[in-house]
Specification:
This protein has about 375 residues and is an alpha/beta fold. The strands form 3 sheets. The protein has a 6-stranded parallel beta sheet, with helices on both faces. Helix 7 links the parallel strand 5 and strand 6. About 0% of the residues have low confidence.
């Protein structure tokens, strides 16, 4: 039996999010394995993907800590340290990059590198951000490094000089949530909105995307842009909308996974304008929900979507606008993208990700 310990980090930080869902999927799959088990080093968590895990305590102390992120993080960190010192596991898989465990750890560990955005685009982050330094320190001593795309592997090699034999590429998997015949909307009857998903600052390229799409929103008064996640619009964003005279065409909402599925299903298109990403899980969400995908022409997006998306130059506003118009104005072309997306989704079955990861655990224990 290979016993794997996940530490607390991402489950202390995220309620929703691709990284915590990635680790939760592995933990859930390990439950069905006869020769591999995963324990999560947390006491208190309000993470959506581990609601059934014992760490979601319902007593008064637990409920109070669930509302206090810094205190919750510190309590969970102490518990992870306790489990690491106890040493009753074969392999550690830290869920983020804080290197607090290095001095006490007596067993090997594997680290997943989701992207190299901090290293490639440092101006997108605060000057006191320590993620890049922490990541470099953790990568140095890892028994194996998982990257979620060939793009991230190449970036890791080029930036930190990590040799091939230390890196294992394991693409994200995506769990299909509904059967094809359970989708009720018709592709030709999409609602009049375009969908943007996730954070909006820096490398996400949101402001350029807004400037690019503004002529379309102004000329088609019934067309909307719906933005999910990323929090409420900031003052600077609101001022930009006013300047472009499109304030009434843009909405922001924080939604559950189920609500997000519905938004994908009924959107005319999903647009992902990032300058850089390490993978791009929303692309698979769009494919699953039969939503045409319009993507920046970054290497990792092409690695994930192949021919199942319309691409644009993220630095060219005309290119962005033309790609959107091409998809939303041509139903046959959009339907073709939907069909290719469904086919492409078959390359990212969750069992591929999980089994490759568990096999890696066993090889290192």
């Amino acid at each position: 039996m290979t016993k794997v310990l996940f530490d607390h980090q991402i489950f202390s930080l995220q309620v929703y999010g691709g990284i915590s869902r990635y680790f939760a999927n592995i933990q859930n799959a390990a439950d069905s394995e006869n020769d591999c088990s995963v324990e999560i080093g947390i006491l208190f968590s309000n993470n959506y993907y581990i609601q059934n895990y014992r760490a979601l305590l319902q007593n008064s102390l637990g409920k109070w800590l669930l509302s206090q992120q810094e205190k919750r993080y510190n309590w969970n960190k102490k518990y992870s340290k306790y489990l690491i010192k106890k040493n009753d596991f074969d392999l550690l898989h830290p869920t983020y990059y804080e290197p607090y465990f290095l001095k006490k750890l007596k067993k090997p560990y594997v680290i997943t590198v989701h992207d190299m955005i901090h290293e490639l685009l440092p101006d997108s982050f605060p000057s006191n951000d320590v993620a890049a330094l922490q990541k470099k320190e953790v990568i140095k001593q890892a028994a194996k490094i998982i990257t979620i795309s060939e793009t991230t592997k190449n970036d890791l090699k080029n930036i930190l000089g990590i040799p091939d034999h230390r890196i294992e590429v394991i693409h994200h998997g995506y769990q299909l949530k509904k059967k094809q015949n359970e989708i009720t909307n018709q592709d030709s009857q999409k609602d009049e909105y375009i969908l943007f998903v996730g954070a909006r600052s820096g490398y996400k390229n949101f402001n350029r995307f807004i400037v690019a799409v503004s002529p379309l929103l102004k000329s088609r008064t019934t067309l909307r842009l719906i933005c999910t996640g990323g929090g409420a619009f900031q003052k600077e964003e609101i001022n930009l909308f006013k300047k472009l005279a499109i304030s009434n065409n843009i909405l922001q909402a924080n939604v559950s996974d189920e609500q997000l599925d519905s938004l994908y299903s009924n959107a005319m298109a999903f647009v992902f304008p990032s300058i850089y990403e390490g993978f791009g899980l929303p692309i698979l969400e769009a494919f699953q929900n039969r939503c045409p995908a319009i993507l920046s022409n970054s290497n990792c997006f092409k690695e994930v979507a192949a021919t199942a998306a319309e691409y644009f130059d993220p630095n060219d506003e005309h290119s962005i606008l033309n790609a959107i118009i091409k998809v939303i104005d041509h139903v046959d072309f959009a339907d073709d993208l939907i069909k290719k997306g469904e086919e492409r989704l078959q390359h990212f079955k969750p069992e591929y990700c999980v089994q490759k990861t568990i096999s890696l655990y066993k090889s290192l224990s």
